[in-house]
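FORM 7B - TANDEM STRUCTURE REPORT

SECTION 1: FIRST PROTEIN
SEQUENCE AND TOKENS:
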Amino acid sequence: MVNRREFVKTVGLAAVARAGMDAVGAQAAGTQSDASAGKSQWARLLPGCCAYSYNEALRHGSMTMEDFILKAVELRLAGVDMTAYYLKSTDPEYLHNLRHLAYKHAVDFSGCACGVSMVQVDAQKRADSMKDIEKWVDVTDELGASHLRIFAGVLPEGAKIKDAVDWVVEAMKAACDYSGQKGITLGVEDHEGVTQNADLCVEIMQRVNSPYAGINLDITNFIPTPTQDAYAQIAACIPYATNIHIRDHFLRSQCGGYGPRMADLCASRAPGVCVSGV
């Protein structure tokens, strides 16, 4: 296992080294044409942090979201995930004040996050979940962010995985139609429940088939299968990644620490993501 401090140090150095090599490569290649500028394969790994990293402090009141933004300045982060659980209000005035504070301190919002579950047996509950997602899309828009992290949910008792995937696809298609009007991308997290397998995550992306759909990639949550260990599942999802959550250990497997292999994997495959340590 890799020590947490050593892991963060290794990832940081690897990202910086990669960025330097990319800059040299870009100069050597000459100036890109306007037509190809949007198709660059050079990775941009931007360090960030989820508010959930300070869950205890935020839940118990010893830290506010304003404090969290200032903590990001102290840690020299590029952006923060404004996890919705800790917002004291969704009133525009409060959200705009957070947005302004972040701007004054040159902190970007890598996105917002909500805990809505799309896996509901009852059709009315699924409709209610859709309304909740639309609400948090609006909150994300008020914050000036361009990404909302969402969850599929835990498979209800007696439900079939095929039905659950169908529900997620149905919800995400509608949600992306709504979020796309505001230029906001929805990143479904591979989290406890129906999205702990890369094949299902990729299937959802391919069936939703929207430029406003992606995978909020938490590298610790995949359950290894006989054909894919956790690393293989991470690699399969990276092309769809919006944000990436990095920890120094797998939660549900014995695959060991990440070290340079994880940094190299992200740098070689991700088109441009915010790497959030949690």
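SECTION 2: SECOND PROTEIN
SEQUENCE AND TOKENS:
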Amino acid sequence: MSTLLPPLRPIPIRERISVIFVEYGEIDVLDGAFVVIDVNGVRTHIPVGGVACIMLEPGTRVSHRAVALAARVGTLLVWVGEAGVRLYASGQPGGARSDRLLYQARLALDENLRLKVVRKMYALRFGEEPPARRSVEQLRGIEGARVRRTYQLLANQYGVDWKGRDYDAQEWESADIPNRCLSAATACLYGVTEAAVLAARYAPAVGFIHTGKPLSFVYDIADVYKFETVVPIAFKVAAAHAGGNFERAVRLGCRDIFRQSKLLDRIIPDIEQILAAGEIPLPSAPVDSVKPALPELKGSGDAGHRA
């Protein structure tokens, strides 16, 4: 008798390529493969199951079958502006799991628990414990001052004329090169971080420092890594590129630093560590709750699997 093989499971986030950008092509599924077809009819195969996030730039069409396949294998599709500098919309493979959503919401709604989580974020981001007896608002102010100072220090280090993180999104072409490079870099980081947040089954909108945005929690987590990964890349490219396709250089630099820093290995464990700072357990279902009509099979992987 042949041995029954276990069901196929998506590749864990930590073992995937971080991000791929696609522009001016049609994405479809041909012969079971995820492919991009350019204007000349040339097909390029993308190993969709091994990618955390695919950024779809202007000029890209995506078929229903391609979206369904991406969701099935747990690859996040994000619709972005030219050069990836704006985030318009994203898919949501998997989505928040009810127990983790309730856990995350309880931490965010209780001021004492929220403060513990924010302090942990601060400690991971700056490598030191935050000042004692400070509110979330006070910690946000301290963080903002350190962030502005860090921007200026990096600008000085790379010889960039820095006038602050200030630009008009409606007048994008008039923004200076450093700000455009930073926006392209953070878009890459946000896409990868959102893919990890969804893989861990948490809600991107339920934030602790950032609130009121669809990606508040994504911004919270991404900020932990921003200055050790993408911000130096952005200033380095801004210093070296007076013209040309500097956004592409930023994307390539981000891809390399994600791999070198093993970022995808770190995000999900760090999310769990950050939320564990609240020191409360995951909630159990109410005793009178109705069980699922079709029970979910126990997966063979860790939190980095979406299936």
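SECTION 3: OBSERVATIONS ON SECOND PROTEIN
The beta strands are 17-22, 25-30, 33-37, 43-45, 51-56, 60-62, 76-80, 87-90.
The chain has nine helices and eight strands.

SECTION 4: SIGNATURE
Preparer initials: ____
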